[in-house]
Amino acid sequence: MKVIVLGADGYLGWPLALRLSARGHEVVGVDNLFTRTTVENSGSSSAIPIPPPESRIEAARNIHGFDIKFIKEDITKPGFLRELIEKEKPDAVVDFAEQRSAPYSMKGENEKVHTIVNNLVGTIRLIEAVKSVDPSIHILKMGTMGEYGTPNFDIPESPFVQAIIGGKQDRIITPKKAGSIYHYSKVFDTYIFLFENEVSNITATDIMQGPVYGTRTSEIIHESLHTRFDFDETWGTVVNRFCVEAVIGTPLTPYGKGGQTRGFLSLEDSMEALTLLLENPPKPGEYRVANQFTEIYSIRQIADMVKNAAEALGLKVSIQQVENPRIEAEQHYYNPEIKLLPSLGFKPKRRMEDELKSMIKDLLPYKERISQYSHVILPKTKWRTKR
Amino acid sequence: MKVIVLGADGYLGWPLALRLSARGHEVVGVDNLFTRTTVENSGSSSAIPIPPPESRIEAARNIHGFDIKFIKEDITKPGFLRELIEKEKPDAVVDFAEQRSAPYSMKGENEKVHTIVNNLVGTIRLIEAVKSVDPSIHILKMGTMGEYGTPNFDIPESPFVQAIIGGKQDRIITPKKAGSIYHYSKVFDTYIFLFENEVSNITATDIMQGPVYGTRTSEIIHESLHTRFDFDETWGTVVNRFCVEAVIGTPLTPYGKGGQTRGFLSLEDSMEALTLLLENPPKPGEYRVANQFTEIYSIRQIADMVKNAAEALGLKVSIQQVENPRIEAEQHYYNPEIKLLPSLGFKPKRRMEDELKSMIKDLLPYKERISQYSHVILPKTKWRTKR
């Protein structure tokens, strides 16, 4: 199988390029290095240092014998994706090439505009490129469980759902309620995909993924192969951020009451799930949804687990709740359905409790390095505008 | 009251600038002339000739004594709206400055990108500008009844609705299902407004308007004051298009079975409704929805009414169904709620049956002119991509 991975320099994109190569697939990676350069320019850095793209690809060749092709380009550039897909004729295109930080999308007008434009223009150009070549090319689109918000109903794993409104029944698009401009850009992606599937029979898997944590996959066996690991207020996600806080000896900082509950999965399990979905594509013209996570926890439970894992390794850890910069429910019902991945034989390999220890061990050698950046961890970007 | 009208050169924007002036309000109009220039560049034209913006404003001054300020600018230009709103400190901003053609948005990749970028970037910049000056400035946002699609439930006039999903009840965003990239851009506007209302207490009226028809308002009493009147496949809406077809003696062309049912209103009633909503603003921080139409008809009923009106004026008219270029239900349930406008004292002044005659009379003097453009009427833009 030939797969184009858009966003191949990212936290998930790079390990996926490795995993697909390990499975014998041909990989063409594309990235404009937006996350890499924006994180550095904002005064933060990946906790675990990562080599430049070319060196990492060279390392993958030397260590694993993988032949990963890489193109540095912006997928929103007119004509680029059309020419690439025309030339490569891939079996699948993985779209991870989106601005992926909720706090970034809430910093101000220009970041809101950039998030919406980058993400939606990329989506439109990708769909049109695929349509013009062959609508049966499988597009694996990275959405987020965050598109659903935290509803009182059980979150279905389906683009449509039956609903009763004012006593009348109808089939509606599965309700969405996002919590940031970033999350809305993902909701809008979903609507555009659904619509284009209806009018042009594009073939897509819409992955509604929960937050991913972890430093390693089976292919990341040497420091020259590491994937980025963000921990600052803008680019870090909660589990990774807590692990960094434990390592550098600052308190773990849950936002608000910490009752926010989400479905999580390890980097290794994310790679496993993505590979299964690519190797078992939908039928041509089918649009399928995959809710993708392995364990459900509240933020407070995660803080406790990170504390326990770190203390077992001899670290001293405290937990200090901070004011929630976001607008979100801090106590809520949460019951998402998950059927597609199990039906394809997916079995989670890692449990958060165990994985946290190996993450902390991986981070400990970089304690000095990370400590220089400790000022970028606490949240400064507030959802609610103060006038 | 001081009102900034974005899109003041358009079919609705210009009559609204006139109506607000007639009511004694101060009007600042803004337009980048996108519709005007794009229609001309596509080889079509307004059926009723319209003077350049400056001449029309001059005519409004000479005939009515109105002092309308006009700025030719693109509202997506960084900093423009912020400076304008800072300087003018308006009581309300009316946002009609969006790409408003569904067929245009379905022509191809670049038109899809343009529609999404223009409409959403304008929305974001407007909201951020208003927030930075005063979130209690009333934003009157033009949405469309088309955001709802044609659901089997009664369309509520509310941003949220109670729904039962899988046996569990929740308050969800009123379900949307749009029929084109243009319509989705309007849905996305709505989501962004709702979200920014939640996080920043912006004050908005979201008008879900049905298709508007008509040539005249109380202020359009001379040809130098005419508003544009589009009839081609891209820019014309159904009632106006049928009237032009009747005038030039080509068959009226309903798309498909013609059972598509919508809520319509006259240009005069649209102006009446918009003025009422502006003069009776929501409370600061409130987000309210107005479903805006006066009569519900199917496309086939409208064709019959136009035929009758034209025949009463001595014209010969036939009806010839054409293949539907769109993807839409041609027979469906349709029952939208309408409460807000009646609660403000809105009473429709025109009925379609009567208005059609005066429209046809207004168009007859331009029969020769319009006949030159008869080739632009039949639909060429297909929703479903042919490969």
Tags for this entry?
homodimer; 387 residues; alpha/beta; Rossmann fold; seven-stranded parallel sheet; 12 strands; globular
SSE series of chain A: EHEHHEHEHHEEEHEEHEHEEHHHH
Q: What is the CATH homology-level superfamily of chain A?
A: NAD(P)-binding Rossmann-like Domain
CATH topology of chain A: Rossmann fold
Q: How large is the count of helical segments of chain A?
A: 13
The CATH architecture of chain A: 3-Layer(aba) Sandwich
- C-alpha termini separation of chain A: 54 Å
Rg of chain A, rounded, reads 20 Å
Number of DSSP-assigned strands of chain A? 12
Q: Shape of chain A, please?
A: globular
Overall mean confidence score, pLDDT of chain A: 97
Q: List segments of chain A where confidence is low: pLDDT < 50 over at least 5 consecutive residues.
A: none
Count of structural domains of chain A: 1
The strand line-up of the biggest sheet of chain A is 3-2-1-4-5-8-11
Estimate what percentage of residues of chain A fall within beta strands.
Answer: 15-25%
> Quaternary state, please?
homodimer
Mind summarizing the main beta sheet of chain A? Answer: 7 strands, parallel
Approximate helicity band of chain A: 25-40%
Largest interface: A-B, 50 and 50 residues
Backbone structural class of chain A: alpha/beta
Quick description:
Chain A has helices at 13-22, 34-41, 53-64, 80-88, 102-105, 109-133, 181-200, 238-248, 267-279, 299-312, 340-343, 352-363, 367-371, and strands spanning 2-6, 26-31, 69-72, 92-95, 138-144, 160-165, 168-173, 203-209, 212-213, 261-266, 287-292, 295-298.
